[in-house]
Amino acid sequence: MEPVVAAVSRSATHTFSKPHQASIRLLAGLGVEGDAHLGRTVKHRSRVARDPQQPNLRQVHLIHGELHDELRAAGFTVSPGALGENITTRGVDLLGLPTGTRLQLGGTAVIEVTGLRNPCAQINGLQDGLMAAVLGRDDDGNVIRKAGVMAVVLREGEVRPGDPIHVELAPQPHRPLQPV
Question: Which CATH architecture has domain 4-168?
Fold first, then answer.
């Protein structure tokens, strides 16, 4: 399957889930126009409490639609935007991308992957047990965070469901994603 944008979502307030949209506009250096997390500095409440001047490395949240499939198979009711993502993808191994990978979304928008989303306990507010379902362990017992990746906007543009995604891996040596 060719990489594609499956859905786009945004919320002007700090709600956990984000409603679907026909399109979203990404603004360079800021994030998703009209989204509560828009800005050059952090907008996530816990990060603002620690240091409101930190750069916003979480301007855009992406989740692979294949995670929704996995969660539905485990008995959860999830759909695009339910876990707070702005962009739901198909056909891209988001969690396997190295830090600094660039994704061109549609004709003009370009984002750079900054790291993994570290899921918080609010996920259980959506459905009991969901937090455990978006965390796993590898063979060595290390935590695997499956709740998507975060990115910053390098070039603005409109993003719509059905838009192609072009992946440009970061230069070697690749650095694995870490929570941001």
Answer: Beta Barrel (2.40)
The pLDDT tens digits for 79-130 are: 999 999 999 999 999 999 999 999 999 999 999 999 999 888 889 889 999 9
Q: What ranges do the domains of the chain cover?
A: 4-168
Token duo for residue 149:
């990746």
DSSP state of 174: P
∠23-27-31 over CA atoms, to 5°?
Answer: 85
* CB contact at 8 A, 123 and 83: yes
What is the C-alpha separation between 1 and 91, in angstroms, rounded?
Answer: 6
The answer to whether the pTM exceeds 0.85 is yes
Radius of gyration of the chain (CA): 15
Q: How far apart are the first and last CA of the chain?
A: 29
pLDDT of residue 152: 98
